[in-house]
Amino acid sequence: MQAGPWRGLLSTLLLLFAVGADLCAQSQPKNLPDAPQPQKTIPPPEPPAPAESSSRDSAPPTAQPRVDQPAQPDATNSGSATNDTPPAPSQPVRSPVTPDTDRLYKLVSTTNFVEIPVTVKDNSGRMVEGLLPKDFTVYENGARVKLTYFTSDPLAISAAVLIDVGMSDTALRKVQSGIQALQGAFSQYDEVAVYTYGNSVIRESSFSTAGDRLAQALNRIVETKHGQQSGVPVSGGPFEGGPTVNGHPLDPSVPQVPIIPHDRRVLNDAVLQAALDLSKVQPARRRVIMIVSDGREDGSRASYADVLKILLTNKISVYAIGVGSAGMPVWRKLEQINVPGTGTGNILPKYASATGGEVFSEFSKQAIEKAYSAVTNVARNQYTLGYYTQGTLAENYRDIEVRVGRAGLRVTAKAGYYPLPPGRQ
């Protein structure tokens, strides 16, 4: 009788436990993910072997990659077992190299380009324009050459102006009085340097446009330079005068003869320095040396032959304005007589003739002023001829002759040239 109540109580407890378990199951959220599983550490991939990189690369993307960037694999294939290493970077495309064997069939020939400025005037001295290449014939060492370049266009000028301050004071003052006209002879495209010479060479201004620097140099020449006094040089002997003590005459009543020292006229040295400076300017310009002097040379270290070689090698023309004794026709003939101890006579015509320049012999101040513009006008408006000649290791002088196929015309050009060494072509 006692087991009946216990069975009922036990049945009630089991029923309550089943109902509670069912309620707990309904209160839990559904579709929960599984707990994460521990993963094995993946070691870094080994660098790919060059031979296997092409066979194991993944499929290229739809867009073509740039040449200078490596192609990236498709994201959809990143987990593929066939592409577990990154692709090797691609190399930029290089232009093909010419095989060295091609050089065996190249023939190297050294040539010189010879440039000839040419002035053509009629019988009245006026420049002749309108000539064509067919009107000119050029010979080198007696053999005709073929012209490959011709122009009549005006060129900018690089000019070195040499002023002789060792000539007589009368001639120098005449030059100084009209020296400002020299600045007006040049255009804004020209460049000018000024030198003075007597016992030595002085560069008054370096190459620059015809502006303030040139004007200052010319003013300095006018204010500070003086020519030589007239008279025969006296340095001793019976014509010197009476005895002196500390530079003062012992007997003041005895007339004293002024001592005029013998000064040098280093014309060759001045031309050499100007030529070396001109050799450094742009080759497209017309290189000109303008000398204002009576042309006397005395005491230079450089010889005429050495200076002429520098001029012809560097395509420099010499123009001269003969003043003083060089401006008087009668005196020019007398100067051809060389008196020992007085230096060489007028050598301006030698420089001008050999380099294709010209001498303007002027005596008056007005004529000297006009000569400045005449020099620049001729140098700027010359014909320019050119041809190629076979180059050699020898630097021997070569003659040049230029002819014009029209009667009554006078041709002025350099008489020859020295070829440049092979290393300076």
Describe this structure in words.
The structure is a single chain. The protein is of the alpha/beta class and 425 residues long. Among the domains are: 112-154 and 384-425; 155-228 and 257-380, von Willebrand factor, type A domain (Rossmann fold), CATH 3.40.50.410. It has ten helices and 16 strands. The strands form four sheets. A six-stranded mixed β-sheet has the order 7-6-5-10-11-12, sandwiched between helices. The longest helix has 25 residues, at 3-27.
According to CATH, the homologous superfamily of the domain at 155-228 and 257-380 is von Willebrand factor, type A domain
Strand content: 15-25%
Q: Would you count the extended β strands for me?
A: 16
Lateral strand order in the biggest sheet = 7-6-5-10-11-12
Distance between the termini: 140 Å
Q: In this structure, how is the largest beta sheet organized?
A: 6 strands, mixed
Question: Would you state the CATH class of the domain at 155-228 and 257-380?
Answer: Alpha Beta
Number of helices: 10
Named CATH architecture of the domain at 155-228 and 257-380: 3-Layer(aba) Sandwich
Poorly predicted ranges: 51-83, 330-343
- Whole-number radius of gyration? 48 Å
Oligomer: single chain
Brief summary of the model shown:
The protein is 26% helix and 20% strand.
Layout of helices and strands:
Blueprint: H1 3-27, H2 50-56, E1 111-121, E2 136-140, E3 143-145, E4 149-151, E5 157-164, H3 169-177, H4 181-184, E6 191-197, E7 201-208, H5 212-224, E8 244-245, E9 248-249, H6 267-278, E10 286-293, H7 304-313, E11 316-322, H8 329-334, H9 348-355, E12 359-361, H10 365-380, E13 383-390, E14 398-404, E15 410-412, E16 416-417
Parallel strand pairs: 5-6, 5-10, 10-11, 11-12
Antiparallel strand pairs: 1-13, 1-15, 2-3, 2-14, 4-13, 6-7, 8-9, 14-16
